[in-house]
Design goal:
Two copies of one chain form a homodimer. In chain A, α1 runs parallel beside α6 and α6 runs antiparallel to α7. Chain A has eight helices and eleven strands. The N and C termini of chain A lie far apart (37 Å). In chain A, the strands form three sheets. Chain A has a seven-stranded mixed β-sheet with strand order 5-2-1-6-7-11-10, sandwiched between helices. A two-stranded antiparallel sheet of chain A has the order 3-4. In chain A, strands 8-9 form a two-stranded parallel ribbon. At the A-B interface, α1, β2, β4, α6 and α7 of A face α1, β2, β4, α6 and α7 of B.
Chain lengths: 213, 213
């Protein structure tokens, strides 16, 4: 089972690593990290880099495609060759997935038109601009496309996919293997958050030139 | 705030990336990924590599040290120079932390003697062999040392640390920023899991030469 995870500069690395940590535990999983070119791809702060072991020109198919997000997704969306590659790989997949604003890359590639989908809560407006129907769920499955909410939602999406591929027992074992027994200190939903907490985030995104839509 | 995250071959990358994704969002956070030598460090399956941007010889202090785990931790523990470095950095830290079997590296460095600590559920016996007192908690704080349970527990530990450093409002904002509103499909505690699910894990670890203690 050939699993391809896209990497790019400005990636939110947990978007990629959440599904990676789950899916690599499936029997027969072979994961490849793929970039526009091979080589290091740095997070937006530059302080962590993951390596793209292959370039998109070397990868023509995937059983599962995972498209992570991050502030750098806008640069990915701006490149016709990247969108063409996403469309071409999508033709070959059993599952095409995204985490966080990776959904905007799928949207820009034109494969979410008329479909329900989710993304980071701050990007619902942009997602809708690609003809998708934004839905507030942890992840949304539409045919062979699964889009997950922000960042950490890729773990839940990965476990959902593991369950569909390998059944409940193995998916449960994977969950316990990564000891995913979460104890978040706060309510993690933006919909329940106090205004002053949301203000911190809206201001942070504004400094990056993003308005919450 | 100088945050150092150790990387090594055989790392469980989510151990490192969970705290990374939380702590990098703290004001003034400067994160450095550090290895025995600089360069790519691959997960145990080899399919993902993160880059150590600095070698331990170049790093003499840290405000926060994060020691992740993974099957490769045993090789780290076997190297006196690595343990010496951990001990030396620990002298300079405000917080010394571990995720998953990273606690065994702290244990081997001799800094958990007589302290309560946690690690991946499969490694409690090894942790005790270093004189620590294993505790089944999501994370355990003892003075300036915080040890977290397996893999995904680093996210909870990171948020706990963010709360102590920057207060509830900002930590809550970080949690919502990474949309950490988990919806795990199963009960993630090994203590509540059916025997056949645990058997899958025990067999998997046995194939790697590890017995669950």
């Amino acid at each position: 089972m050939n699993i391809v995870i896209l990497a790019f500069d400005g990636i939110t690395v947990l978007d990629a690593v959440g599904p990676y940590e789950v899916l690599q535990r499936l029997p027969g999983a072979e994961i490849t990290i793929v970039g526009e070119t091979a080589g290091l791809k740095r997070t937006d702060t530059g302080s962590l880099a993951i390596n793209a072991d292959r370039a998109i020109s070397d990868v023509a198919s995937a059983d599962i495609l995972v498209v992570p997000g991050g502030f750098g997704e806008e640069q990915v969306r701006a490149k016709p060759a990247m969108l063409e590659w996403v469309r071409a790989i999508h033709q070959t997949t059993t599952w095409t997935t995204s985490v966080c604003t990776g959904a905007l890359i799928l949207g820009a590639a034109g494969i979410l038109k008329g479909l329900k989908a989710t993304t980071h809560w701050s990007a619902f407006g942009t997602l809708a601009s690609f003809g998708a129907i934004p839905v507030s769920e942890r992840f949304v499955e539409q045919g062979k496309i699964i889009t997950a909410a922000g960042v950490s939602a890729g773990i839940d999406m990965g476990l959902h996919l593991a369950r569909k591929i390998a059944g409940d027992k193995l998916a449960h074992a994977i969950q316990i293997g990564i000891e995913y027994d979460p104890k978040p200190p706060f309510d993690g939903s933006p919909r329940n958050a106090p205004q002053d907490v949301m203000r911190i985030l809206v201001d942070t995104y504004a400094r990056r030139g993003l308005s919450v839509t």
